[in-house]
Amino acid sequence: MKIACIGAGYVGGPTMAMIALKCPHIEVVVLDINEERINAWNSDTLPIYEPGLLEVVQAARGRNLFFSTDTSKHISEADIVFVSVNTPTKTSGIGAGKAADLTYWEGAARMIASNSKSSKIIVEKSTVPVKTAEAIGKVLSRNCSDPSVQFEILSNPEFLAEGTAIQDLMKPDRVLIGGSDTPSGRAAIKALKEVYENWIPSERVLTCNLWSAELAKLTANAFLAQRISSINAISALCEETGADVQQVAHAIGTDSRIGNKFLNASVGFGGSCFQKDILNLCYVCETVGLKEVAEYWYQVVSMNDHQKNRFVERVIGSMFNSVKNKKVAIFGFAFKKDTGDTRETPAIDVCKGLIQDGAICAIYDPEVSPEMIFRDMSTPKFEWDKPNYTKSASRFLENVLIGSSAEDAVKGAHAICVLTEWDRFKDYDYKAMYEQMSKPAFVFDGRNILDHDKLREIGFIVYALGKPLDPFLQKVY
Ligand code: NAD
Ligand code: UDX
């Protein structure tokens, strides 16, 4: 059997590497139009940072795992074609700022149609709006010149999270396969199920109809993000009442109906999926006339924006209502730990908010390059996915410094803002950092990972998200 995957990104690369590792009898080729990305996959400096990924790639690459830009050859030879291209939020036209931009998906479908001389199973790996399979089916059937070629479309959404992709792929809670309830649909589901059953117990491979699989993916992300917005909403109330959000989260999380995962209050959720997929869900609801349902889910995104704004206001308010010309050390720019990904990271909005008030942000992240930070800080909302983007002059860039280390970022700073929960941030010598900072020195822990009592003993004024407020933090009006 031969598998091709269109899209060698955060999903296509790791998922195909895992299939190749676990199925040595299957040839897996990952394809991309981005030559630089493919070259990186063929090197030992992979294009994405993901713990354990290099080892998996090295075990299979050259054996039955290949990365290539030769799309026509490998699509033509494949029995199963996964499509794992980006499906960002539309930035212009109808549905701008909400609907999914399916340009890349349509491009991939046209590429499959024009390069197919034999029937194939087409697997939607990208997250797409409900009913995409129907639309893509039309693009495929109308663009293939050989009428004997049949395409069977399956929806097989990916549930991995960045930073834990390898363990998520190795032992997923479930794999979901949606397909048509026809003889050829059932045969396609069986063929894909057999691939996964090489390492995943069959009871964990769930099957359903196409539309349920497509909608389940949007729903899963909406539910996960909703938990974060819910606990973040409570974090604001905790600060006003003297309750401690971690104690509240623990108390509710021990109720088995609620569960204890995904209850960490934070400066806001980021990443390429949550916001995009909820907006997409809202757009689908609006399109079918379900205005109230759309409004309900939209609140999850609004609360997330509120949490980022609230954090910025807290920093500025605590620092005597002005951060003009004050250096603020930013610890962490990635949207979560153990990834270098900055797509929709809350750090962008927080840094922009602080800079708008005149702060100089000295940013340090162990996995994010200065080039990426400059690009993010000068890119308008939703525009991060534009491939032809060129760095433009932005007023934000004048106030951005890149710290070569955390120690470098804190020199002369008035405050430290922890925006990503990197483990290494817990182990720094904060006493030595305190000596290097302007006084009073503040710590704003947007991830609640530091030892706040110890920081207070050193002399810091500490804001811990969702926790009783340090008296010194009261706003100056
Ligand atoms: P990505 O941007 O990292 O990768 C997509 C790749 O597709 C890019 O390298 C791009 O060059 C390539 N591409 C686009 N059009 C192409 C074409 N016609 N031919 C060949 N290559 C093409 O995106 P990603 O983060 O891997 O996400 C892919 C999909 O998976 C999205 O729909 C996303 O919502 C979904 N998803 C992402 C995650 C995640 O954690 N990132 C998790 C689950 C699902
Ligand atoms: C998410 C889903 O978890 C995954 O199943 C889906 O396939 C893709 O989208 P990802 O965005 O990679 O994965 O990371 P995730 O761990 O979900 O974190 C998303 C954001 O929420 C991060 O910014 C993270 O810091 C934040 N978060 C997560 C919290 O603020 N609190 C939490 O308790 C959990």
Automatic annotation (TrEMBL):
A Pfam family of this chain: UDPG_MGDP_dh_N
Domain UDP-glucose/GDP-mannose dehydrogenase C-terminal: 329-452
Gene3D superfamilies linked: Cytochrome c1, transmembrane anchor, C-terminal, NAD(P)-binding Rossmann-like Domain
InterPro entries: 6-PGluconate_DH-like_C_sf (IPR008927), NAD(P)-bd_dom_sf (IPR036291), UDP-Glc/GDP-Man (IPR017476), UDP-Glc/GDP-Man_DH_C (IPR014027), UDP-Glc/GDP-Man_DH_C_sf (IPR036220), UDP-Glc/GDP-Man_DH_dimer (IPR014026), UDP-Glc/GDP-Man_DH_N (IPR001732), UDPglc_DH_euk (IPR028356)
The protein's Enzyme Commission number: 1.1.1.22
Record-linked SUPFAM superfamilies: 6-phosphogluconate dehydrogenase C-terminal domain-like, NAD(P)-binding Rossmann-fold domains, UDP-glucose/GDP-mannose dehydrogenase C-terminal domain
Enzyme class name: oxidoreductase
Presence of keyword Transferase: no
Name this protein carries in UniProt: UDP-glucose 6-dehydrogenase
Catalytic site: 273
Keyword NAD on entry: yes
Positions with a binding annotation for NAD(+): 7-12, 32, 37, 85-89, 126-127, 162, 273-276, 343
Origin: domain of life: Eukaryota
Reactions catalysed according to its record: UDP-alpha-D-glucose + 2 NAD(+) + H2O = UDP-alpha-D-glucuronate + 2 NADH + 3 H(+)
Family according to the record: Belongs to the UDP-glucose/GDP-mannose dehydrogenase family.
Keywords: NAD, Oxidoreductase
Organism in which the protein naturally occurs: Chlamydomonas eustigma
Pathway this chain belongs to: Nucleotide-sugar biosynthesis; UDP-alpha-D-glucuronate biosynthesis; UDP-alpha-D-glucuronate from UDP-alpha-D-glucose: step 1/1
GO molecular function, one term: NAD binding
GO CC, alphabetical: nucleus
GO biological process terms on file: glycosaminoglycan biosynthetic process; UDP-glucuronate biosynthetic process
